[in-house]
Amino acid sequence: MNSNRDKVRRSQEIAYKFMSAMAGDLPGFEEATRALFAGDHEQFHSLISSWPVDVRDYVRKLSASAFQREHAT
């Protein structure tokens, strides 16, 4: 179904917009963006681990649905 893909894409876009505004100058931003859109959960979380706690935690919340691909049918 497309609904799961739409949910993943929406989560990616929302997380990316926030990341661009709040973390665009932080280390690993570009690599984290690539990992986000590639669905690479481990790499993404590794790259954002050094970001300020409030920014990192909110990005994790916004991006949670972006890593649901393995459950897609």
Core attributes:
73 residues; globular; 70% helix; mainly alpha
Dominant shape: globular
Number of domains: 1
How many extended strands? 0
Structural class: mainly alpha
Alpha-carbon Rg, integer: 12 Å
Helix tally equals 4
Uncertain runs with pLDDT below 50, 5 residues or more? none
For the largest beta-sheet, the strand count, sense and barrel status come to: none
Q: In which range does the helix fraction lie?
A: 55-70%
Multimer state: single chain
Distance between the first and last residues' Cα: 7 Å
Can you give the mean pLDDT? Answer: 92
Q: How big a fraction of the residues is strand?
A: under 5%
Order of helices and strands: HHHH
Kindly describe this structure.
This protein has one domain (2-68). 70% of the residues lie in helices and 0% in strands. The chain is built from four helices and no strands. The chain has helices at 2-23, 29-38, 41-48, 53-63. α1 (2-23) packs antiparallel against α2, α1 (2-23) runs antiparallel to α4 (53-63) and α2 packs antiparallel against α3 (41-48). The chain starts with a helix and ends in a 10-residue tail after the last helix. The mean pLDDT is 92.
